[in-house]
Amino acid sequence: MSARILQVIDDIIGVQGRDVTPAILHALAAAGEIAGVDRSYVYRLEGADRMRNTHEWVATGITPVIEESQDLPANLLDIWREALDAGQPFEIADVRDLPDGSPERVILEGQGVQSLLIAPFLHGGRLAGFVGYDAVRRCRPFLPFEIRLLQSLAKAIGVVLDRAKAEAAAEAAKAALLAKRDRLKAMLAALPDMVVELDRDGRLVAFNEGADTSSFLTPSQFIGCRVDEALPPTLGQQFIQALARFDRDGRCDPFDYEITVNGKNRWHNATIARRSLDGREDGYFLIIRDFTERHHQQRRIARLGKIAELTSNMVIVTDAEARIEWVNPAFEQRSGWTLDEVRGHRPQDVFRSDRPHMEAQLKVSTAIAEGTPVQIEMLNRSRQGQEYWISMDIQPMHDESGRLDGFVAVHTDITDLKKTHHKELRDLRLAIEASRDGIALIGPGGAHGYMNSAYRDLFGIDGAEHALTIHWADLFPPDVPCAPREQDWHRLVARGNWRGSLKGVARDGRILPLELSATIRDDGSLLVIVRDMAERLRAEKEQALLLEKLHIAQRRETIAHVASEIAHDLNNVVAVVSNAATLLEAQCRERPDVLASVRRIKRAAHVAGDLVGGLGHLGRSNARPARQDLRALVAQGIDLLGSSRIEQHGIALSLPDTEQPVWADSTRLLQVVVNLALNACEADPERPARVRAAVLPGTEWQPARPPDLGTWSPGADHAVFRISDTGAGISPRARERLFEPYFTTKGKAGTGLGLPIVGTILRESGAALWLDSAPGQGTVATVAWPSVPIAPALPRPPAGGAPAKPPGRATADAGGVAPLAGMHILVVDDDADLADQLSEMLDARGAVALAITDPHEASALLNETPGLWSALLTDMHMPGMDGIGLSALAASLDPPVPAVVITTHPDRVPLPSPGIREVLGKPAAEADLIRALLRVSKRPAAQPEPSGQD
């Protein structure tokens, strides 16, 4: 038994760690089996008077009692306490030996105990607990050596329990220390401050990693460095000196400094504390706080304070009871009261006026009582009795808890503003009275409250008649046509304003066409502005009539242009027949029967020419040119485009200050302006082109090249206008055909007659057109119009070829003289048959004539050999280049070549024109043609024999 108990003791003594329960239970079981007991257990004393069963082993079949053995009174041990305190075991060989009824016997018998051995264990010389061994099934006396062995085991268990308790206490202390450290670490991490540890030499050894380093220098890169090495030199020396003061005096006041961190200036505050290591002083703690925002706030507060002192506005600071605590110098200067005189008083006691504004004062008192802001205007009086107006802005101030802490009031002197406002009101009243529009205020009941002079004049209301006596319905009765309708009033109420046209009734019964604008005011009254529309309606009617007249003229010009083209083509046919008959007449002189038929053909051709000449005048109105001001006509033409087109294209008009006279039929000139302006508006198919129109003084503008259309006389007086656009421009290919009839770049939207009609008007009016354009750069159209009538320089033969004098042959008799001998004549007509016949006729009269149908080919031939040609005989209307342009080219050569123009409408040739010496009607009589060629070549005519005429 001894060996076995000793082994148990040895096993339990060797147990390590806090949890020794398994080892104790194993020891109790082993001891119980070895000792032959039924129950073994451990009791521990808790405090001075309680004990409890902490461990228990029971043999098979034995009831555990550990549950009933908790929190028992320690006085149950009193009868054995003396022995136990001495560390002596005691034995109860038979429980029945205990006194009857004793608490000990009752408890033991209740647990079925027959024999008992208690072995105590001490701690620090005092009873800490005991190990008990119970015999339940039978009495079990214990031998002395058994008692000693079990006592030793109890001591061993006590040692193990004490050691476990000590280890648990150590671990708890360690855990508490760790928790404290973690709390400190968390606290430091939560602090916005940077805590830096320095050793005794001032070297950085540690820091709190939880701090936000964005506001500080990163300390990790300076571990092991002295503080003066980590900081800028001046700041480093400041820290070294502070550490020295701390070592000398045992303390150092916190100090502020400025430092650059991440490129930004920051303000820090540093505090120094002693660091202790193992109970001895060994280094320093630096607590660094970033107070940049507070520094800026303090600066702002200081500035605000300075501003409050320097501002011209009056500033008053009061407590929560509205008693004055501070005023700025501006207040003292304006009010005449010093701070010492008004401190503790309420502002309303300081400012008193003979004209108090009770409503304003009540509003201020209510706001102060409720602690709410208020803005108001009031009349104040200074200490010297001077009254002045202020705009008062009172704002409540609250402390950090949100409690009302006082008020700040800013007073702005608005006396001058009030004076200005009153002046503006006077000026406004004067402006309303001077307005040409009628202005009135109408009350909610319909009675007039005010009406200006224009309103009275418009309705014929006498100045002595009071506005309140006149009702709205008196001037706008519902039975008048176009009076305000019920839905108009509903719309006015819904929107707050209404504008439209209606009719009113003057006091004398006249019906007034009016434009009215009505607006509902805040007080429910109606502000009404009326304008007399009579003049505007008259102007609109005149404009409509003018526009209709312009449209009629445009249609006539279109008809005339088409008829002229047809007449031109028919006249060429008639001329071929007439010229052929003339040639045949010379060859049939010996055959009277044939000669009579030829002459009948000639007479028929002459009649046909007259008919064709009449066709050329179809649709054309008689122009009535007169002296006009070009400025008015151009402005009128732009206005005819309509307000929507003017707004869409931003059409701008520039006019000189002085009159620009032109000699023109106003309708025809308007046609030119409107056609060119419409072309400018439609110059870009992708977006609205911007259009500019301007009238230029003719004396300030000279062309750099001949005109593209019409006639330009450098010595004549002209007035000039120009229309430009920002459109797509004109391509070179389109420019070549721009003035051809029926050519258009607008597709089905265009007729192709606009510019040809413009060209006709310009030619017949002696005007000229220049077009400057390039693709993508817009177009500039410049028109020069004569300022005075241009008299024809040449006689105009009648249209249709009727001779100015009796026709005759230019030929001599059989042996006579050829009148055109030695002359070289260039014949140009786009009708090949007519050109050939004219050439043959001239050849028969002795000339050398060359017929050409292309005017461009003719111009090239003239340029190559100008000295060869005696005269140019040309048609007027030809594609690509007309007779005017070809004649002007011939006149510009060296030597110049004189020109004779043959046209269906000789009266439409603008004269004078460069190079044109004679103008003949189609078909031209042979004699007239020969005489004209002789005149332009300045050669004497041969005397032909007269030929018989029917």
Describe this entry's structure for a reader.
The structure is a single chain. By secondary structure, the protein is of the alpha+beta class. The protein has six domains: 2-169, GAF domain (Beta-Lactamase); 191-295, PAS domain (Beta-Lactamase); 312-419, 2-Layer Sandwich (Beta-Lactamase); 443-522, PAS domain (Beta-Lactamase), CATH 3.30.450; 626-786, 2-Layer Sandwich (Heat Shock Protein 90); 802-937, Response regulator (Rossmann fold, 3-Layer(aba) Sandwich), CATH 3.40.50. Helices cover 39% and strands 23% of the residues. The chain has 27 helices and 34 strands. The strands form seven sheets. It has a six-stranded antiparallel β-sheet, with helices on both faces. Strand 32, helix 26 and strand 33 form a beta-alpha-beta unit. Helix 2 (21-35) packs antiparallel against helix 5, helix 17 (534-587) crosses helix 21 (666-681) and helix 21 (666-681) runs antiparallel to helix 23 (754-765). It is elongated and about 200 Å long. Mean pLDDT is 80; it is low at 747-753, 792-816 and 941-950. Residues 824-937 form the Response regulatory domain. Residues 300-344 form the PAS domain. GO terms for molecular function: ATP binding; phosphorelay sensor kinase activity.
Radius of gyration, CA atoms, in whole angstroms: 64 Å
Terminal residue distance:
186 Å
Strand-pairing-aware structural class: alpha+beta
Number of continuous helical runs: 27
CATH architecture of the largest domain: 2-Layer Sandwich
The total domain count is: 6
Beta-strand content? 15-25%
Q: Would you give the CATH topology of the largest domain?
A: Beta-Lactamase
Mean pLDDT: 80
Question: What helical percentage do the residues reach?
Answer: 25-40%
| Uncertain residue ranges | 747-753, 792-816, 941-950
The CATH class of the largest domain is identified as Alpha Beta
Q: How would you describe the shape?
A: elongated
Largest beta-sheet characterization: 6 strands, antiparallel
For the secondary structure, the number of strands is: 34
**Which superfamily, in CATH terms, is the homologous superfamily of the largest domain?**
GAF domain
Quaternary state of the chains: single chain
**Major sheet: order of its strands?**
3-2-1-6-5-4
